[in-house]
Amino acid sequence: MKIFLIGMPGSGKTTLGRELASHLMIDFVDLDGEIEESEQKSIAEIFRQQGEAHFRLVESRLLCEWAASAKHFVMATGGGAPCFHRGMEIINAYGLSIFLDCRVPTLVDRVRQNRERPLLLAEDAEELKDRLSRMRAERLDCYRQARIVIENPTGDALIRCVEAKM
After folding, report:
1. Are 100 and 150 in contact, with CB atoms under 8 Å apart?
2. Reading across the β-sheet that carries 2-6, which strands appear in turn?
3. What is the pLDDT of residue 111?
4. What pLDDT shows up at residue 49?
5. 2-165 maps to which CATH number?
6. Which residues contact 47 (CB under 8 A, 6 or more apart)?
């Protein structure tokens, strides 16, 4: 079983993914962590030194490798992973995709203090809200291709949805 959690930065992919993987007793994979390990650099350093295009190629390569593997896992994808290089097509071909749909004010509250997200660096909460709103609008059609959509996700809701699909 391969479960891919998709959604905006701050939607709970990592937190809820760890909880779901533990409940299912399968591995948890953080795609951003896999990228950092592969490149031996932080995401911020990759963006700064090699740019977003390089980051997206590495992200796509690792997503494909994990998807094609024989392993069972819950993966927290990066927010953009489904939206570049046929990511959503790959995710849906190899596993169960779940869109964790959170509203922008919730996302702002969750990511406001995180300086590790290069695409979300903002001067203030209003600029961050504008960036998140634009990004969400750009990515929403892609995200909605997920097999399951959970609005305002919680661990319990995610577990119930997955168990219903098993």
Report:
1. yes
2. 27-30, 73-76, 2-6, 96-101, 148-151
3. 79
4. 95
5. 3.40.50.300
6. 55, 118, 119
